[in-house]
Each structure stands twice: as C-alpha cells, then as structure tokens.
Amino acid sequence: MKFLLESLLTAFVLVVLISGHVVNDTVAGHVIVEEPAKYLLQLSPDTQQWVTEEEKWEFIRDGKTFMDITDSQNLDSAMVLAQQPFPIRYPEHCVRQEQVQRLVGNLSKIYMRNNLVKLTSFHTRHYDSDHGRQSSRWVLEKLNDMIKEAGANGTVTAEAFVHPWPQSSTIVKIPGLTNNTVIISAHQDSMNKYLHKASEIAAPGADSGGSGTVTIMEVFRLLLKDKDVVNGLTQNTVEFHWYSAELAGLLGSRAIIRSYVKNGREVKALIHQDKVGSIQGTLEAKKNESIGVITDFTDLGLTNFIKKVIDTYCDIPWVETRCGFACSVHQVAKYWHYPAALVTESAVEHRNIHSGARDTIAHLSFDHMLQHAKMTLGLVYELAYTKFSDAPSERPPK
C-alpha cells in the first residue's frame, strides 16, 4: 500500500510539472504547487502588463517589443526621478576629419567577415544557453587579444558584465581626461523566436546582433592604433558595449545602464547599432541604399548630429525612420534620461526579412557594414574630443 501511494504521488507530481507548474514542496503528504512565474513588461510609455513566460514568448513571436522590468520595478521610478535631464549641446560641425581619414582606409571588410563567420558558428547565441555563454566568452577574448596586440593593456580594459543567466555582456573602456562617457553599443545575442525552446534551436544571428557586433568591434580595433586615444588624451571616456539578452526584453542593457544611473555615471551619448548589414529589402523596394536613423524615442540633438556625421564621413545618405517603443537598446537609456540614438541598415520597413535559422551571412553586404563603420569611427572621434559643458546654469531647475 505504501508503495502504491508513493507511486501515485510521483505520477501526480509529474503531471503537475508537465502542465507548466512548479512543485515547491510537500507538507504532511500534500503537494504544494506554485503559480507559474510571471514577468512585468513595459509595453509602451504608459502601459505595463504581468505575463507568464509563455505569454512573454508569444509577444516575442508576434513581433511585439517591450522592456522586461520584472527585476527592478520597485526601484526604477525613484531612479528615473533622480535623473535630472538637461540639454546636451553637440558640435555644430564635424572637425576631426584629419584624424578620421588617417584611419578610415584601414577599416577591413575581411576582419568583419572573419569575425562574423566565427560569431555565427555558434549554434545559437541565446542568452540562456551554453552556446550563448560560449559566444560571449569569445567576444571578450577577441577584444582582449586586440588590446594586447596593440600594447594597450596598460590603459584600455575589456571586462565581462555578469548576469544571472549564462551569457555575459561585455564592456570595453578607454579612459579619457574626464569621466564624461560616450558609449558605442550593439547586442551580441541571437534568438530563433519562431520555435519552442528557443535556447536550443539554431540562430546564427548574422544581421540581428552579429552585424552590429563585428562593425563596432572593427572600429575599436582601429581606435587602438591611435596613441593619443589609447593614452587617455581624449576629452571624454569612450566605452564599447556588447549587450546580452536584448531580444528577451532588453535585459542586459537594462542591468548595465541601471548600474550606471545608480553610480552617478555621466553618459553624454549612447549610440546603438542594430541590424546594420542588409540592403536586400531596400533594393527590392527600388530605393537607394542609405543608413536608417531612428527618430522616435531618441534624443533629438544626438540624432541630428549623427546625420551630420553621416554627411561628412559616409558615401551614402541617411534616411529618417521609426521603429516603435522598446524596439532596441536606446529605449533603456532614454528611460533614465541618458541621451541615446539608434542607427540601422535602412528604413525599418525595408530591413532584413530573414530571421531565425535563415539569418545568415549570405544575405549581408559588407560594403554596407563598412559605411556603418565609417560613421561609427567618425562619431567616436568627434564626440571623444568634444568638451561638454557642465555649467550649472544649463541645468533645469529642480
């Protein structure tokens, strides 16, 4: 009889587990069952919703964008109020053409391709998988190799930002004369959002995550060739960020940017690049190749300055476009009043239609990625040497 009761209890537990609930404990022979885990999503500036994990992934599969604010909803409001935004004046013109032109010819499509071949060789870069962990470790090792080869390991650092999930984010820091910080970023994760158990399904992520990752990696490689930059003679500190878990609700960037707000970091600009490798949709729409500059939920002054940078340093024009709430990392920075901008491969309606296992290198243009690298290199130089005013008279009254 005892054996029969134990067997029945075991069978019941299995049924509960299969049904999606988690067994927490047993008390006096009774099974205690927890409710399914829930997540708080910010779906718009004014809309939040608690959802189950399955409902969250349904949102992702349906193409809905959001910020997952589950881990910090009780603290965010006070931190947002503590951030006192004030207008930042960006340069009227680009003035670093000489320094940029010395390096821009050394930007290498071969380096970008080789790095992207390696990055897409991981079965997936899903943030909650061992493949994702391995890919972020490769990114960190590659950056440290660049620093060592340039002899810059005395001043420039590359470090992992560890999260509760397996995949780390990566932060490179090039100190300047002040702690005012300019951030260039991309996301390094990938996801096959159309299939169940996304952490196990192939997701090369060549364009979504990969193209931006290797583009800013190439710009970093070139910056290390400038001794003034490496030796900390720029006016501002420059950082490169590769975020984990963007595709699951901007989780990695939220963790990092929230820590910057908490520590009082002065971020003068964050420029994120997401999907920067495909021109297929643009050409099929019979439009001219261009760089997409996002205009919604971005900082107007920084966005306008990026247009000037593209006009100065790129061989193709820019086009204004919109992508909606929480479509990428810039939304996180804006949430805490850091000035942020987003640049992409084209007008959003013409972006790469390939996703999941089909998001491969075969669909990308490294010539187009080179234009994004030129823009990024010019942007870094212009803003790294910009003297931002911190005069109290420019801050709004409390």
Automatic annotation (TrEMBL):
Similarity remark: Belongs to the peptidase M28 family. M28E subfamily.
EC top class, as a word: hydrolase
Species annotation: Trichoderma asperellum (strain ATCC 204424 / CBS 433.97 / NBRC 101777)
Name of the molecule in the record: Peptide hydrolase
Cofactor list: Zn(2+)
Assembly description: Monomer.
Top-rank lineage group of the source organism: Eukaryota
Keywords: Aminopeptidase, Disulfide bond, Glycoprotein, Hydrolase, Metal-binding, Protease, Signal, Zinc, Zymogen
A Pfam family assignment: Peptidase_M28
Signal sequence coordinates: 1-20
One GO term of the biological process aspect: proteolysis
Its EC number(s): 3.4.-.-
Annotated Peptidase M28 domain residues: 171-377
InterPro entries xrefs: M28_fam, Peptidase_M28
Matches recorded under Gene3D superfamilies: Zn peptidases (3.40.630.10)
One GO MF term attached to the UniProt entry: metalloexopeptidase activity
PANTHER family: AMINOPEPTIDASE YDR415C-RELATED, METALLOPEPTIDASE M28 FAMILY MEMBER
Lineage: Eukaryota, Fungi, Dikarya, Ascomycota, Pezizomycotina
